[in-house]
Amino acid sequence: MSTSLIAMGVALFVVMNLVIGLAILSLLSGAFETLFGKPKLSILRSTKSGNFFAFGFRWNSAKEPAAVDTIRIRLFNPFGNPTQSEVVSQFGVKKVSFAEEVDMGPGLIELIGAKNFDSASVQVVVGSSKDGISWQFDMKGPKFKRLVNEAYLTVDQFIGDHNLGETKTSKPPIDVPIRAFIADTVPGKGAQLAIATNPAFANLFAGAAPAGGAAASGGTAATAENFAVTKVWIEPGCIVCNACEDIYKDVFDVQADTCYIRPGAPLDDGLRIQEAAEACPVEVIKFTKA
Ligand code: SF4
């Protein structure tokens, strides 16, 4: 055997070992699944009425990002009745693998009860109405029926088993300093807001008081007249930064998803409400003057 043949054999052996080693490493770390794993549909046990369909859907959301919100079940029944039917349902947008129980309406029971269902085909389509992406899972009628009847994991159990679910945080991960930037203004640097908490404008607001109320503590001469408002509200887009609640917590109640106006909130200190509105970084606080 020539020397070059031996060298080629050794090189081949080394490369093969390298590939096998990498594959094992990838499998161990889960990267193999991430790179090559196919979307998976799992039919789960519904805990509600027969109209409900429970399922789990796992896919590589890093590789194929999508706002998944739709499930469709189609029946192709060429020798039965009806020959074709479809039920569709939408649910809250999911951007990572999830499990859900959705109301498909009475059409689901009719679909499963179709004449000659056992000769039919069923297609389950999971997709995104916004992104135009969908994944199809085809099976014969009997298999679909068996998976539905024999499903034993509920949505909650499936989520627990697969460690699914988006990380729930009480507020979005926005890095907001505890004190709003307004209270931390540096005189002489950049544009400044003419609001009561800005020391540079202290004189402007000195003595401002609720309409019909006493002057603010420390105030001597009212240069800005207070006013009452008839209505204050929050438009969509709040980023729950807390600025408004820090300024006027009797009126603004910042929760995990948005800011709310407290029931019975005082509406006589328009200046303070205006101050909160001006402090709102996304300008979603609106009010009307009395
Ligand atoms: S309403 Fe504006 S100021 Fe209040 S929490 Fe939402 S974004 Fe922040």
How is this fold's topology laid out?
Layout: H1 3-29, H2 31-36, E1 40-44, E2 52-58, E3 68-76, E4 84-94, E5 98-103, H3 107-112, E6 121-128, E7 133-140, H4 141-150, H5 155-161, H6 202-205, E8 229-234, H7 243-247, E9 252-254, E10 259-261, H8 270-279, E11 285-289
This protein binds iron/sulfur cluster.
Residues 234, 238-244, 252, 254, 259, 279-282, 284-285 line the site of iron/sulfur cluster (SF4).
Characterization of the model:
The protein has 290 residues and is of the alpha+beta class. It has 2 domains: 37-161, Immunoglobulin-like (Sandwich), CATH 2.60.40; 199-289, Alpha-Beta Plaits (2-Layer Sandwich), CATH 3.30.70.20. The protein contains 8 helices and 11 strands. It has helices spanning 3-29, 31-36, 107-112, 141-150, 155-161, 202-205, 243-247, 270-279; strands at 40-44, 52-58, 68-76, 84-94, 98-103, 121-128, 133-140, 229-234, 252-254, 259-261, 285-289. The strands form 4 sheets. The protein has a 4-stranded antiparallel sheet. Strands 1-2-5 form a 3-stranded antiparallel sheet, with helices on one face. The chain is flat. The chain starts with a helix and ends with a strand. Mean pLDDT is 77; it is low at 29-34, 167-191 and 209-222. The protein binds iron/sulfur cluster. Iron/sulfur cluster binds next to helix 7 and strand 9.
